[in-house]
């Protein structure tokens, strides 16, 4: 499985989301590759991704995609990330 | 990694500004850029690029209740990887649907060489403890902030 964490600049926020998504996936025993991307690169980054993780305000910037878009409010809330990822991939 | 971020609990005094007065979110971001500049990590003008990122993409930098991670892409106005911490005397709204108002602004400067600094992971270690944001917002000395960061980063992350 491929998962992309998306933010505006591709540094900082998407990296925090990526790190915490990896933690949650380990907890769920799900084997996935998680990368971080900025908005400009999301088309190619998410071309073969199953899930895009992002914040509420960035959903409109994603454009057409076959991936499930998972919106995370609190990037530090592992429970929220786990619950929403489980719903998306389960 | 040519220029790694220093450990969070070694933030210099200049990079920490407590109970800053900000009229709005732009002011709050400028304060975080001023702290980055005071510590030598970036030019004060870096703040205008951090503001532009929010104007372009919205308040997604408000990544947890009460916490914004102000940043922009690497550029000539960044001198080295660094963080600043600004707490606000009065919280300000960024327009986030879930995490407003913001009382703590982290400023992040990154250079081309360290776009995905490993130390970002240490931010997650600290702030995955939800009690840390209000504790930092209430801190009155830089030593108190560093002590909170040290205590939190020395604990294993939740679920890890």
UniProtKB/TrEMBL annotation, chain A:
This is PTS sugar transporter subunit IIB. It comes from Herbiconiux moechotypicola. Residues 1-90 form the PTS EIIB type-2 domain. Keywords: Sugar transport, Transferase, Transport. Coiled coil: none annotated. Pfam families: PTS_IIB. Gene3D superfamilies: 3.40.50.2300. InterPro entries: PTS_EIIB-like_sf, PTS_EIIB_2, PTS_EIIB_2/3.
UniProtKB/TrEMBL annotation, chain B:
InterPro entries: Ascorbate-PTS_EIIA_comp (IPR051351), PTrfase/Anion_transptr (IPR016152), PTS_EIIA_type-2_dom (IPR002178). Keywords: Cytoplasm, Kinase, Phosphoprotein, Phosphotransferase system, Sugar transport, Transferase, Transport. Its main location: cytoplasm. It comes from the Bacteria. This is Ascorbate-specific PTS system EIIA component. It is found in: Cytoplasm. Pfam families: PTS_EIIA_2. Residues 9-152 form the PTS EIIA type-2 domain. The phosphoenolpyruvate-dependent sugar phosphotransferase system (sugar PTS), a major carbohydrate active transport system, catalyzes the phosphorylation of incoming sugar substrates concomitantly with their translocation across the cell membrane. The enzyme II UlaABC PTS system is involved in ascorbate transport.
